[in-house]
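Problem 3 from the worked examples.
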Amino acid sequence: MTLSLMPTSRGARAAFLFPGQGAQAVGMGRELYEQSPAAREVFEQVDDALGRPLTELLFQGPDEELKQTVNAQPAIMAVSLACIKAMEERLDDDALPAPVVMAGHSLGEYTALAAAGVLDVSETARLVDLRSKLMQEACDRNPGTMAAVLGLDEMTMEEVARDTGVYVSNVNTAEQIVISGDRLAIARALDLASARGAKKVIPLQVGGAFHSELMEPAMAGLVRAINEVEFRDPSVPIIANCTGRPLTDAQDIRHELISQICGCVQWKRSVDYMVKTGVSNFVEIGPGRALSGMVKRINRRAQVTNIGDLESILSLHRN
């Protein structure tokens, strides 16, 4: 199944946003599976591509198993893509949102590939599955963790990172920065950030130091896999995590996915770029509302819609 949503000229310029790891929850997507044949087909294709019953784990748990990187990443991707197919199935042309641009946070960038027709659902599921396994292997070789720092700007956090040996891994908003590194270095960085005036520091319950050089062991395997897959040009631009600039051809997308594994997710820069190019409506597609909250903190005038279940899809008819 190929998903390739074409841009629309009607109404305001809209962006589709796709969440990353951490948005997973047992039971997410079950209603879509049960009530939307188009969504069910997505889940079945993902199960077939992975060669295991991910959908069963997604709907029944246990939660600790779903949280594992190798399960959480394809599960979140599957729910986001199922939402798109359910929208296409349930909404007429006047109610169906169609993007002029897309962006995804970390894992979500892979979801955007399927939504923009760069890869089909099965190809995307297999690539996400391999990425998650390579990341887990890197975590086993280079144990680490992540933490969010609230209230300090990027420049200050870059200084903290240099002084403590950690990495700035996500710039989510002007004052929400995520750092990665080994556990002792993260502890030192949080102490220093607090001393520098951070409003809050939050250790994150994650499996490793994602988007840092500690993920380097995953690089070679990911490069091989990406070079073996046939990428197509996206139907709409995808805003790159690493640069906050649009990706419009297959080769640039390859480079971005390789850079992204160890590179910082520049989410604020991505949202700023979309706003500057005239995007006023943002549609977060998939579980959770984390990206919506970030968008509103970056630009209070932005209009944000969340699509994560059948009710939210049907509400588009009423708006």
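Problem 4, a separate protein:
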Amino acid sequence: MKLSSCTAIAGTNIALVKYWGKRNASLNLPAAGSLSLTLRELGTRTTVRFGEHLGPADRVRLNGRDATGAVHARVVSFLDIVRQQAGVTARAEVVTENSVPTAAGLASSASAFAALALAASRAAGLSLSSEELSVLARRGSGSAARSIVGGFAEMRPGIRGDGTDAYAVAIPEGDGWPVRLVVAVTAEGEKAIGSTEAMERTARTSPYYRPWIDHVTRDLLDARAAIVEHDIARLGALAERNAMRMHASAMAADPPILFWTPATIAVMETVRGLRAGGLPVHFTIDAGPHVKVLCDAADAPAVEAALAATTGVLRTLIASPGRGARILQETTA
């Protein structure tokens, strides 16, 4: 190994054209493409250290506590993939600080596995291209592939069975566009159902799943065009429609999947009221109860004030476009 320790950071991302459904669950290969915005204010910092002296088992700490159960197993499984690629057998110590609430519908796994992919691969002696790193991050979480890339990113679903052509690429025309996502947190704690389970149930039982997949290609074309033109009203309207169709497919599953709370719906009505008043604002909702509102940077303070005043909203945050996953520190073995 050339490196024994690496610290990396990655921002979470919010999908404007959603990732919902897999063509291969074991490789986290998406059934369709997606498009997202990586954020600066919410993310994950991870340090990975490999060494024969660490003992027979990987050690994982998350936000100051030893990880156990499914979280620990998921990280170890990912480290095994890195070890296989790097040709190493040493155990690892992983220390992660995550500013995104885990399993709450704010894409915590996206930043977590993007940071882990970069830190672990470098600590194991690998030097991967952006595309290769995105492929690796996808193995941990489908949405993590996009957090490797900064700003607006498009996930290519690929067609190969091994997934080597399923990775995220940057949309450079969006660089420097002063947009914001205002986040309205509407609940505490983890979701009642995880995204992976919800995706699988939707794909298996919802009569709206196939129509949802069939619309994604057109949504991606429209989203790219809106980004090139810096047309926030067009991009926002598309993102809002795409989110509603995703949730409609989940609601039609058997048994139905409903992520929303009364506060979620109240925020949606607040956004519609702002739009009726002349502001070009639109909402998007991932697999959770929280609402993210796309707007111009100049309008963000007014949008945040309106969301904060909405019944049921616990707190708000103005998020801006962020950089892709990057290395903060490396230590040579």
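Solution to problem 4. The chain has a mean pLDDT of 94. The first strand starts at residue 3 and ends at 17.
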